[in-house]
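chain below, 175 aa
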Amino acid sequence: MKRLIWFLPVVLFCCAGAQAQETPAWELTGGYSNLWVHYAGTNFRLNGGNGTLTQNVNSWFGGRAEFNAFRGSQSGVNVSAYTLTYGPVFTYRKWDRFVPYAQVQIGAIHGNQGYLGISQDAFKLDVGGGGGVDLVVNRQIAVRVQAEYMLTRFLGLNQNNLQTSVGLVYRFGRK
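prediction:
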């Protein structure tokens, strides 16, 4: 009987740990984002927001769609840029509260008239890669911190940009 009394708490403790390691089927994120634009010796920063939707295929692989909207001033002109990208995300789920990931994204960037000196609104290719970490608060909520390199091409020149973001993740469903 004493063994059973000690065995039951050990089993419950182990099951609680396994439950925390479950992979969510979907992750929905919203937060603050900024874009550091580097263009022909000129650097400026745009602020905005982002949203992502991730579908996890298994515990380490998934697909992520991401939308960003940025606004700011470039040489005294108010400009905006929007990105819509999709790509694979690779997640390392060894720890319960700390979940790092890497991703590769491809899609489009829309710059309005005046962005980087363009004369009219334009859609261009956006290719990027980066990573981040989810700091898990509980089974459904996490805080995401992310940094990503973005390659864009306006006016026949490459722009090597850096996008950073922080936001809240709502995790739902189970794999």
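Residues 10-20 have pLDDT under 50 and may be disordered. The longest strand covers residues 157-172.
thats it, cya
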